[in-house]
Fold these 3 entries.
Entry 1:
Amino acid sequence: MADMIKRFETMLEAGQDSPMLRLSLGNALVAAGRLNDAIVHLEQAIEQDPGYSAAWKLLARQLLATGDAARALRTCEQGIAVAQGKGDLQAVREMEVFARRARKQLELPPAKS
């Protein structure tokens, strides 16, 4: 995994930055247990392409995993809107699950459908 992370970082340093590269690096960092580092790159992926529902989904999951339920919930809400707009129903369903978990952590009532 460290080799893959290094390869992605080298690509970034060489100016090959893209939302897909940031998502790939984020995934590799998650697999290595470096969640906070992954969050930085996932946020960059979304900044570069606000319509990238896969990045929204992975970011929401990692925010929830790091205990940042409030940010996870906001990310889910934004990501769900993006995914719905693209017709990415699987991402919508997954982020709805993350949003429910975040609300539970925050002790908020369930969202109205």
Note: The two ends are 40 Å apart (CA to CA).
Entry 2:
Amino acid sequence: MVRVEFLGPIAREALEIDASSVQEIADRLREDETLREWLPKCAVALNDEMISDLSIELKDGDRVTILPPVCGG
């Protein structure tokens, strides 16, 4: 199982998902209408490292974090 966490204004509880790649998680999250608008704007971290390659394979215990854009001063 992989833990998927959502930060900031997404305001969702973490999910435990059985997935073999980051792409598989992205595909599953797109099925949720409330997340669909956020996903194209978000960055993704795998075990606290920013990633851009969704084909990365996952292993049991990995943590994927969905990071929405932020602004401030």
Note: The first strand starts at residue 2 and ends at 6.
Entry 3:
Amino acid sequence: MSLARGKSPHPLQIAIACGGTGGHLFPGLAIADLLESWGHRAILILSEKAIDRQAADRVPHECMAFRSLGWQAGQRIRFLLLFPLILMKCMVWMLRRKPDAILAMGGFTSLAPCLAACLLRKPVFFHESNAIPGRAIRYLSKISRMGFVGFESALQALGPGSFMVSGTPVRRELRSLDRSECCQQLGLDASKPIILITGGSQGAMGVNQQVVQALPEISQRLPEAQFIHLCGMHEDIEKLRFAYTQAGFKALVFPFLEQMELALGAATVAVGRSGASFIAEIVALGLPTLLIPFPHSADAHQQANAQTMAQSGAALTFEEAFMTPTLLTDALCQLASDQQLRHAMAQRLKHFDTPESAACILEHILHRLGQKPGDSPRQTKSGLANSLNMDPSSQFHSLQPEVSPS
């Protein structure tokens, strides 16, 4: 039974800790947008990173930035010294701003605000997008009132508690894209294959280098292809543009693209890391994709994400260590030229889609906070959870041996 979507007569303020990476930020923004459309108020808690500063300038929500440190080798002493100060600042802010609850979207950016909320007896909720929960979420799961996960396999690492599979929220505009219009705005030909290469908000140097080496062979086998290449700030953009020109391709090469929805909407196929937010976006669009997990992701969570998608036939995947320009060329040409394969992968992607993910999360949070816009919160079984029961013997498996999640 679905909750009514009318505005609540008693609006709440919910802080959403979603800073640090695009993988935390974009799902958090999707929830914030929906929350405010329901008549409540979202306050985004961000880090001081460049991606968060840029987001704060663009979004219509109130934003608050706190310093963030990860529990990483080489800076653990610094973490222990600075964390109490960050925690104190979070507590002072919460006493002044008085949010009714906090929702953590993962990462160490969310740790201090959520611990501050717990100490002030404010409800803590979390969402974990990845197949393997991060360290911060594993800790927060012990103090949270309720948690939500994108992959059913994440439940195994959380222990006892009130958790449910919700899928991962995506921006609403991704569900109403017109490919021809996206291509027109980017100046690309919709009748020809368009390959999107992206390494996420931080870029991917290994992927960039492999693509450049593969371009001469791709030009022989797929000369009509067009490229959108989001390479990250660390790459020499002019050298990449020159490589595409030398290979005879029309290519748009940017460090990043603020209107990422245009690139996703225009693409025929994509190549990218296997962060959970990117996976949720390709799922929402039914976009056939070659996933290349970041080899140094915490707890190998990107490998686990990619393995889940590949085993169901919803994506192809390579481990970066085994990837070669020839294998990359084979995969891209296969995806771009085989319409039947793309259709089959798009159908498999639908099994992972959870279009009501943000609504599901918010309905349960509001219910826990005593808000009842309708009869009762909807008890939905996620399409993502259903998809994990699919036969893994699909003909569309990874082009490499299975990626180990450990």
Note: The chain has two domains: 13-168+355-375, 176-350.
